[in-house]
Amino acid sequence: MPEVTLVEVGLRDGLQNESRILSTSVKGQLAGLLMDAGVKELEVTSFVHPRWVPQLADATELIRTLPDRTDVRYRALVPNQKGLERALQTNVDEFAVFMSASETHNQKNINKGIDETFPVLQEVIQEVQNQGKRVRGYVSTVFGCPYEGEVPLSNTARICNRLLEMGVYELSLGDTIGVAVPNQVKEKLKALTQEIPAERLAGHFHDTRGTALANAYVSLELGITTLDSAFGGLGGCPYAPGAAGNVATEDLVYMLERMGVSTGIDLKKLCQAGWLAEEQLGKQLPSKVLQSVAAA
Ligand code: HMG
Ligand code: MG
């Protein structure tokens, strides 16, 4: 098995979907625990409209409280120029733009049609590149849309190619509502890698129906070695009804390490972040490994 890069998205994808809003200080503590556990790629927040996602309204303050760490990359989502202007007031290392492969989810999530979105993202990507930084592109609803059902692969391929031309270095393919199953993932990703090198792709699997770990494994077999995950199995998109948590980082780390793939993450230390989140959110989180360590 090749080396794997894990992108920890729990502070962003996870907390954006929680009804209880955590304080900036607790988020900072969680970030600290994740970094102590060895997380190097840390998606911290997003600079979206605070009315649309109040859970992340403290994006600027949060990033300002984080320590300067040259060994950790702080990442943030930016939907448009306004979001980028806010993000550039902080020391974000890497940015991510996002859109959907299905028209209706794109509209509900960012209030624009797919074709209207390209010029907005083009401007953002250009400006980030002028700053000498990297931009990732997320494509949502690749494996199914809560409003439109099946989404043709041609939609995803068109958007991916366009975003690459515009300058993103990587595309994270989202199973936003966790409907994907391994043979579908294999078929779609195999077809996509005919056009786009696997090194440019990442897997972003939500675990709504318990298939995320299997889907992550299939992606690895196809040479897609960057995977997004969320500590505790937090996650969901507020504008995708039915979306539940991302694949849990604990579960993915456990599986990979047992397979002989080094992740650089200390599982016991990682659990500290999950337990703090459980305490602060007042509920048990879905990660299976987190529960098994707690019970041991
Ligand atoms: P809009 O209302 O269409 O924005 O929202 P607008 O451009 O028409 O501007 C309206 C007002 O909002 C203006 O203020 C702007 O300045 C302000 P006014 O002039 O009226 O006073 N504004 C902003 N303020 C702060 N920050 C900004 C910003 N932009 C405009 N960035 C917008 C468009 C994209 C902002 C909105 O739809 C939005 O915030 N959407 C966010 C939705 C979201 O965060 N979804 C979850 C993340 S995506 C996800 O989870 C999927 C993923 O995990 C992958 C997967 O699982 O598939 C990535
Ligand atoms: Mg997501």
TrEMBL record:
The keyword Coiled coil does not apply. GO terms for biological process: ketone body biosynthetic process; L-leucine catabolic process. Keywords: Lyase, Metal-binding, Transferase. It holds the Pfam family HMGL-like. SUPFAM superfamilies: Aldolase. Residues 4-271 form the Pyruvate carboxyltransferase domain. InterPro entries: AIPM/Hcit_synth_CS, Aldolase_TIM, HMGL, PYR_CT. One of its GO terms (molecular function) is acyltransferase activity, acyl groups converted into alkyl on transfer. PANTHER family: HYDROXYMETHYLGLUTARYL-COA LYASE (PTHR42738). Belongs to the HMG-CoA lyase family. This is Hydroxymethylglutaryl-CoA lyase. It comes from Melghirimyces algeriensis.
